[in-house]
Sequence to fold (397 residues):
Amino acid sequence: MTNSIVLLLFFLTFLEHGLFFQRVSSLGINYGQVGDNLPPPNKVLQLLSSLNINKTRIYDTNPQVLTSFANSNIELFVTVENEMLPSLVDPQKALQWVTSRMKPYFPATKIGGIAVGNELYTDDDSSLIGYLVPAMTSIHAALVQTGLDKYIQVSTPSSLSVLQESYPPSAGCFRPQVAGVMTQLLSFLRSTKSPFWINAYPYFAYKDSPTKIPLDYVLYNPNPGMVDPYTKYHYDNMLYAQVDAVIFAMARLGFKDIEVGVSETGWPSKGDGDEIGATVANAAVYNKNLLKRQLHGEGTPLRPNMSLDVYLFALFNEDLKPGPTSERNYGLYQPDENMTYNVGLLSSSSTSSQSSTSTNSFMSITSSASTAIKEGKQRLMTCVYLVAIHMIIRRPY
Fold:
């Protein structure tokens, strides 16, 4: 009995001093660099570290980033640019790419994945599609040859427009035009145990049909949600429905065992006149609610016990991105490292007026999540104290 009480008190000490630390391993952020006023990579590393984010995705293999992130706790998800795919079909050129772009930096720089291209199946240049899987195969073979395949996965992000149907989720299926090459891709992913990455933006669906799609449903706010009429699964947000539609689409091609992750999702804080919903308020709510879900390690209704890996888009507003105004306004931060809006990420290095009152505090993943953890810890401590008292009272003398 005495030993039990000692163990309980030891456990309480751990709780009291905050030695149980919760890290959201399923959350990453996209670090785009299409701007002429962004901070240097070493400053970006400091920002990410202060936010306690340990995964980031870049859209190239920028040697400055790879060097700056050495000996840090942040894992990089790097990208092979679309235009490089034809040359990397050649196994020798793929080996040269791995030995010059990956091997010199690994393992000092944590590299967890290579994205071969980006949205190839929906890119304007459809001529590159045929090169995708052969290039992925050659790059993976080069990783095997250099002994890096145990540490670095190979995949490719697709946009949600690869789906012919996405509603309800159980009707999910790929477009006929890509079904053949998609089978090749899924076969590769299964054989290498790599995830299928999807760029999923509920914002686009809302922008196109604001009178038909409830805003609360796409923002993860409390709402009635929808029930898939075939599976009877209940969905209270669109992102999970989109992910499950992809899972059903893969299953229709005979692939039921491949993990699905979200390589991009976000909400713009500014847009053109016809970009309905692109506001600071909506962006803040979307990303704050997404962070809460990630903290809880949620899975989708179809895979409730498998936490969903998500890369938030994006770290910074990028002033040189082409397209509508929204494309330049997805960042949580301005290039000067001031917050665009506060989603609850509190950084000791932040100079934003929105977080000026907390510049001396250590970052917590989200302020609301931090409160939830604190409340949960207090309830747990109370329970442990009661158990300890009960054991002492019942102890025979």
Observations:
- The CA atoms of residues 228 and 305 lie 19 Å apart.
